[in-house]
């Protein structure tokens, strides 16, 4: 158990690990900020421009501009999640495994 605790401390103190954590956090927070901006923009449109949100997409349709706009926010969220997962699997996980391998030597 002490060897495991020592290796955890060794990993946490590793400059490569700290750089990886900073890079991963910066990327994750950037994507999260995009989602938050999209959601709050939609809410602000609903609050301050309900007339525009309630405009039909095409004349005579019952579907308003708000419906595709709301769906696009959901698609954006799923897309950004896929981008994060892809980068995590390709870059962050590989780098993390290399740092662990070095620490356990």
Automatic annotation (TrEMBL):
The keyword Membrane applies. The chain crosses the membrane at residues 27-48, 60-85. It comes from the Bacteria. One of its GO terms (cellular component) is plasma membrane. InterPro entries: DUF485, Inner_membrane_assoc. Keywords: Membrane, Transmembrane, Transmembrane helix. It holds the Pfam family DUF485. This is DUF485 domain-containing protein. It comes from Azonexus hydrophilus. The lineage of its organism: Bacteria, Pseudomonadati, Pseudomonadota, Betaproteobacteria, Rhodocyclales.
